[in-house]
Amino acid sequence: MPLHITGxxxxxxxxxxxxxxxIIGMLLDQQITMEAAFAGPAEIRDRxxxxxxxxxxxxxxxxxVEVFRQTPSVHRFPGSMAARVQSLCTxxxxxxxxxxxxxxxxxxxDGPEVLRRLKALPGFGDQKAKIFLALLGKQYGYxxxxxxxxxxxxxxxxxxxxxxxxxxxxxxxKVREFKKAMKAAAKQKD
Length: 190
Known about the structure:
This protein is mainly α.
């Protein structure tokens, strides 16, 4: 199923067909819009010439920061996020033979195991790992047992909480409304 996250058909096509692009997009999804975060892998690929974990892992770190700084910037924090992407690609290269999809396919893992594998990656805490697991289950064809429970509440059916639920401009608007309501509720508690 083709993903519709960025509003850019070429970037969405890359996310739909390249597991490394999808996981890098998820890593970049912090303190910038979801669309910009998930468009980041296409920018990286276009600037570096390829999107391969071993190549990114071994890229000169200072030159990779410059890849992030080019206009338009890949992320508002180019230094720290370039380092995080390289750390992620190093882990994928060293632990998964450079194959990002192996994280959720090798050994036919169930949802809790995929969640454990994701949380072991640099830059993936509990929430990010659960959102990514929900994205895999809802839109990327992952069907391992227990994925909905392991990704709860992001795996809930008919929810609009995260990038896992974005399938159109309308669903993006619903996710934004949900996030806005959560922020307002959090402010009221303070």
